[in-house]
Design brief:
6-stranded mixed sheet, single chain, 3 domains, alpha/beta, 468 residues, Rossmann fold, 46% helix, Isoleucyl-tRNA Synthetase, Domain 1, binds zinc ion
Length: 468
């Protein structure tokens, strides 16, 4: 049975959705003010892995991921550039969706945008004021009174006594640190710095705070209580803590049953981040010749709750692992004949599948799950090396890999890319020479292809090529 680590209870718990096999899943999406770096993508790859494993277990998942298209940062940077907020955020939204596709991340069912939920945010703000949980500050902004919410601090594991002693004043900024716990803004009164970004609403002229955006968009799309909420650990405080205060303060119901948070991607021991300047975007990686699938593999190969240190050796190894899987797939696809004394590998496959699922059930332990897959890969390669695997077993092995890849999303089962016509002709020509015993001429072509980065391997099933 699938167990997940719940930040709220600080325990690994069996996963049980509210309604049968239906799962409501919300993950905090990007703020459209820059090209996300691969540290940001660790969060999206993690959610994708979780979702794919839920699907693997026959759950029906409704996945909602928001797009923050208005907040402090989008306003600040669009003004710096002197263009409208919408035009500014649209650029990064487009890039984000392109990246998701490259990383083979399954699309969410809905991508709500903050600017399309202003009415809902205003309604929640009004309701919170009515309940005495929010108040208007002297600047006209509306703040959440965190001391009025009994459970404030529970998710973020904040000492409530310290909180009562220390919390005073209020903060209008969207982002602040744990040692600066204060009443936070639900609605920000218009400020000249906001330029032409404002809404005229019953709670005044202004714009929403960042935290209320996710309460409004998640509840509207998934209901007052839903199953899973994800995000990076940096969102636990204040963002997710504030989402709970807003949502539960408003509905009087439990907001989310399972809170899942992924760890950071590090570079030389420091968090990969925009502000530290130690980041690579996905585009940077592609330009350096790393396929997106290698980035995906790297990001998911370490357990999501462990910090992952980014290195170029690491991405090289990820690339090699993906190639190893695809090479085996090609070999298996090439196996013909059932006349050989084929070994039955069903037992090995069954064992690998059980080990894969056991690891994934254990809070998505991908490093162990991958170890199980590669143990089988090694063994099958040995069988192929001894020519002791038949077509039927090969098909079973392929089926297993396809199943596993419905979760991992890194393998390539389509018959590989085609080489340019001219190169294919050379390969055919060499094959003819080789068969007629003209090995010297055949070798000449082989080294010719090698110079072009194509390696040929002669196997009992015929010649195979791969890119070097
Ligand atoms: Zn959020």
């Amino acid at each position: 049975m699938l167990e997940l680590y719940n930040t709220l209870t600080r325990k690994q718990e069996p996963f049980k959705p509210l309604k049968g096999k239906k799962v409501g899943l919300y993950s905090c999406g990007p703020t459209s003010y820059n090209y996300p770096h691969i540290g940001n993508y660790r969060a999206y790859v993690f959610v994708d892995l979780l979702k794919r494993y839920l699907l693997y277990n026959s759950f029906k998942v409704k996945h909602v991921m928001n797009i923050t298209d208005v907040d402090d940062k989008t306003i600040r940077d669009s003004q710096k550039e002197g263009i409208g907020l919408k035009e500014f955020t649209a650029r990064y939204e487009k890039a984000f969706f392109e990246d998701l596709k490259s990383l083979n991340i399954l699309p969410a069912d809905n991508y709500p945008k903050a600017t399309e939920y202003i009415r809902e945010m205003v309604a929640i703000t009004q309701a919170l004021m009515k309940k005495g949980l929010a108040y208007k500050g002297e600047d006209g902004s509306i703040y959440y009174n965190i001391r009025k919410f009994r459970d404030y601090g529970r998710l973020a594991n904040i000492d409530l006594n310290k909180l009562r002693a220390g919390a005073s004043g209020r903060v209008k900024k969207d982002e602040y640190e744990k040692d600066n716990i204060q009443d936070f803004a639900l609605w920000k009164a218009y400020d000249k710095a906001d330029g032409n970004v404002f809404w005229e609403t019953p709670v005044g002229k202004g714009r929403p705070g960042w935290h209320i955006e996710c309460s409004a968009m998640s509840i509207k799309n998934l209901g007052k209580t839903f199953d899973i909420h994800c995000g990076g650990i940096d969102l636990i405080f204040p963002h997710h803590q504030n989402e709970i205060a807003q949502s539960e303060g408003w509905t009087g119901k439990k907001f989310v049953n399972y809170w899942l948070h992924n760890e950071w991607l590090l570079v030389n021991g420091q968090k990969m981040s925009k502000s530290l300047g130690n980041f690579y975007t996905l585009r940077d990686m592609l330009a350096k010749g790393f396929p997106a699938v290698a980035v995906r593999y790297l990001l998911l190969s370490t357990h999501y709750r462990q910090q992952l240190n980014f290195t170029f050796e690491g991405i090289d190894a990820a690339k090699a692992s993906v190639e190893r899987l695809n090479e085996l797939i090609r070999k298996l696809q090439d196996i013909k004949g059932s006349s050989k004394s084929g070994v039955l590998i069903r037992k090995e496959i069954t064992a690998a599948e059980a080990a894969f699922e056991k690891a994934m059930d254990d809070d998505l332990n991908t490093s162990e799950a991958l170890a199980a897959v590669f143990e089988l890969v090694k063994s099958i390669n040995q069988h192929i090396g001894n020519s002791s695997i038949d077509k039927k077993s090969a098909e079973e092995a392929l089926k297993f890999l396809e199943k596993v890849d419905s979760v991992l999303g890194v393998m390539n089962f389509s018959r590989e890319e085609k080489l340019p016509e001219g190169l294919m002709k050379l390969i055919d020509e060499r094959e003819k020479l080789r068969k007629s015993g003209n090995f010297a001429a055949a070798d000449k072509i082989r080294s010719q292809l090698r110079e072009k980065g194509i390696q040929l391997d002669d196997t009992p099933e015929g010649v195979r090529w791969k890119r070097l």
